[in-house]
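Dear Dr. H.,

I hope your travels went smoothly. While you were away I took the liberty of generating a structure for the chain from your last submission, since the lab meeting agenda had it listed for discussion. I wanted you to have the full record in hand beforehand rather than looking at slides cold. The sequence, exactly as received, is reproduced here:
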Amino acid sequence: MEKLSQENFVTLEFLVSILDTSESTVRRDLDELASEKKLHRVHGGAEKNHPLQEEETILQKSIKNVQAKQAIVQKAAEMISNGDVIFIDAGTTTELLLDLLQQEGLTVVTNSIHHAAKMVEKNINTLVIGGYVKNSTDASIGQFAINQLSQLNFDKAFIGMNGVDLHFLTTPDAEEAAIKKTVIDNAQTTYALVDASKMGQTSFVKVDRLEAVTIITNKSDSRMLKETKKKTKVIEV
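The corresponding predicted structure, in token form, is as follows:
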């Protein structure tokens, strides 16, 4: 806890070395501290808990858990078929999916101006949702955006999420939560692309119930993931 207070993140390897104990013992202790809400378990270590409404910048998100995110979007791309109409959420994980879109006759709807520009460069049929653009996440939000989304239907949707607990999908911002909820309601299947660090986390605003989506995440031996599988479909990579 002292190390976390200084540096916000501590690795499993570091703890094993300074405590001169086994990796399994350190894992158990970290899991216990996480269950007491004293820290947040992530792949390879632990990080300091974040306030419910705290939201990282695009840059902060883009450099975290990159390998896991790449594996997640590889699996997500396999879910897309020729001729699909899909929604791709604003966000750093969903951005990695754009480079893998090779299906024929695809139509992509997004609430990210950045995502839309990249897809136009790839000659993909693209519809960008308008609205108030939130600088920290590059997402179009607000009632104008919701009105447009409510008129559309999607074969599949791919969304990011800040927190996944045993009951709800959550995010720090109420307006982004409303966008995600509208998308989930209008998609035949929604895939939440969340790396293991988001599992067991809770943010300020509830988006929808856990069972409303299929979760694509990286493999972990966490109790949270095992319990999540009892509630909804989980695809591990």
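Two observations you may find useful: The two ends are 31 Å apart (CA to CA). The chain has a mean pLDDT of 89.

With kind regards,
E. W.
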